[in-house]
Amino acid sequence: MSDFPETDPFGAAPEDEFERDDLTADIFGEAATVKAVAAPAPLTSEAYTVLARKYRPRTFEDLIGQEAMVRTLSHAFATGRIAHAFMLTGVRGVGKTTTARLLARALNYESETVHGPSVDLTTFGIHCQAIIEGRHIDVLELDAASRTGVDAMRELLESVRYAPVEARYKVYVIDEVHMLSTGAFNALLKTLEEPPPHAKFIFATTEIRKVPVTILSRCQRFDLRRVEPETLTPHLEKICRLEGAQIEPDAIALIARAAEGSVRDSLSLLDQALVQGDEGQPVSGELVRDMLGLADRSATLNLFENIIAGQIQDALLGFRTLYGYGADPSQIMGDMLEYCHACSVAKVLGAEATRLPKESAERVTLLGAALSAGTLSRLWTLMLKAFEEVRRAPDPAAATEMALVRFCYVSDLPGPEALLKRLQNGEDLLAGGAPQGPTGGGGGVTSQYRSANSNAAVMMRPQVQAAPHIELKSFADVMALIEQKREIGLRVDVERYVRLVSFMPGAITFEPAPNMPADLVRKLSLRLKEWTGQRWLIATDGQGGAESIYERDKRESDEARAAVLADPFMTQLMATFPGAKMTGFRKKPKPVDTTPEIPTSADETPDKDDD
Q: Which residues on adjacent β-strands are paired with residue 247?
């Protein structure tokens, strides 16, 4: 079909639509060619190339997150120690097939100046374009999923003995090699152990455990790592700039986290996200959250907080709300497992290590600070068991509700270490009125177990007498309460190591001073809960807080000392009595009166220490 505009029956174009040019000769020998003038340009509809293909790495430097592998290959090629077989393994989308193609190019690289294998692929060589397009005669890329049998492998190995036609090496790239049958692996063994010098093998697999060890021992193995969100986020931002797309940083962070270390998955999600927003408006984090199905994550975190607080009614109502909106019970249980893990990580490494969005990271950090490592570990075990129960149960929703009841029931049970300590101290664990049967207020242990073995009290939920409600409106009220309870050790630690950042009733955030005791946060949280009857979330923050009480008193004492020493009278006095020291400054004193005071009686004579 002609690309020219519509012509007359004799093939002549209308004269008003074309003009002659002196560049080409027509059939009559005249320098004439026709060129459209008035006719509109034909519409072209090119197929859209997805981002995962459009931005596939063309050089080893473009591989993100695989620096260790690139460094090893660079040294191997530089020293000439190039293996005859490579095994690339890793999760989906981390670059196994891409690395295999880059290796095929590097092995057969040849340019006007380079005539040997090279990992510097910034300039295209003679064979590079053909290898990229998959049409090079000496580079065979096979899919083991469709050619699993021994006959296909024998056919492939028959061609190994023939020398390459154009390139330096015959390169065999076998993807998903774990799909080969046992017979195919056995047929490959001998050739892989003693290949001809012109043959190279590159294998890629996501299931390295399914590859026989006899094959692995004959290959140089590279484990391609998951790409961390911290590395993936700048990569996605760069692609957005190249595409001229507007997307909020929070949206990119959500995509990088949802990709779970897969570059290809992140680009596929980014492709999907870029069409979510209105024309001319940036794609917001809220749109991406809806796209990824994360709109209910905040509600799931609320459910997790209800479990920690032991609020059974709120937990059940929250779950039924989520279930009514279509949330999968097993997914809800999986999210709570993730939050339990995030609390433990935040407790040790801080909020940034949780890889959660900022708001969620702050909330789980407060929860982690309020719970001991033992409590989080026991909660993880209970949730993991419940997750399996929900997956096997005939009614997952009912199984989830029963699991929530169990979580709330044990939320404030003391740990074995706490009960053991109380037993060693001779305390009566049943004091205060333990429940007398299965209908009791949360014990859940029948009377026959208590009568049969006194150690059954360890399994019971001791009924602690409700603490009087004490309202603390400021940090000063907290210090006053500690002083009132005569907790001398706790008061000293709080005064010396707590640099207050923020205070709200029920929540304290502070920057720890150096050498803070490791159990100060837990001890303070437990004491405040015991004294006030409510839970306190106490978190540490390294962003910089105010002075601790000890540091403030020391500073004020130094300022008071400096103010006194600056007075001319005291300067002269200290010069008169060399070696004299001034002590006892707690706050800035009033200006010193240099007028000598004449005592009226012996009782009013100043003490020597005051000087």
A: 283
3-class secondary structure, 391: helix
pLDDT top residue among 107 and 416: 107
* Tokens (6 digits) for 62: 């473009």
In this structure, are residues 90 and 96 in contact, taking their beta carbons and an 8 Å threshold? yes
CA distance 109 to 115: 7
Unique residue bearing structure tokens 């986020």? 233
Question: In the predicted model, is pLDDT for residue 501 greater than 90?
Answer: no
Question: Can you say whether residue 528 is alpha, beta or left, with left for phi > 0 and alpha for psi between -120 and 50 degrees?
Answer: alpha
Q: How many CB atoms lie within 10 A of CB 498?
A: 28
Cα separation, 433 vs 461, whole angstroms: 11
Domains for the chain: give ranges and CATH numbers.
1-45 (no CATH), 51-223 (3.40.50.300), 229-291 (1.10.8.60), 311-414 (1.20.272.10), 475-546 (3.30.300), 551-610 (no CATH)
Q: How many CB atoms neighbour CB 42 within 10 A? A: 9
Identify the H or E element spanning 97: helix 96-107
Q: Which residues contact 406 (CB under 8 A, 6 or more apart)?
A: 382, 386
pTM here is 0.54
Tens digits of residue pLDDT in 353-397 = 877 777 778 888 888 888 888 888 888 999 999 999 999 999 999
- At 94, list the tokens: 């981390």
Residues 74 and 208: beta-carbon distance below 8 Å: no
Alpha-carbon span 85 to 68, nearest angstrom: 18
pLDDT at 42 over 60: no
